[in-house]
Design brief:
The chain has 75 residues and is mostly helical. It has helices at residues 3-16, 20-33, 38-51, 54-74. The radius of gyration is 12 Å and the shape is globular.
């Protein structure tokens, strides 16, 4: 498991404990290490939704969608 995946797993753990601030921090670190993983952006979008950060939620969801579309075009 690479360090981006490790941060992602930690983010999932914090999310499940409803510790959204730490979850967002871990997922942000995962994104810093691998900014082309759509799943990271999707989870952080959900975290921001729980935190009531609508603009940030939308930005991350749009990034998720962009990466998914890019993958489809590359196939």
């Amino acid at each position: 498991m690479d360090s981006a995946d490790l941060h992602f797993q930690m983010g999932i753990n914090y999310f499940s404990m409803k510790d959204y601030a730490n979850a967002a921090e871990e997922i942000s670190q995962a994104i810093d290490l691998n900014n082309e993983c759509a799943e990271y952006y999707l989870l952080r979008s959900e975290i921001y939704k729980k935190m009531g950060l609508k603009e940030m939620e939308n930005e991350d969801f749009n990034m998720y969608w962009f990466i998914v579309q890019k993958r489809k075009e590359e196939q």
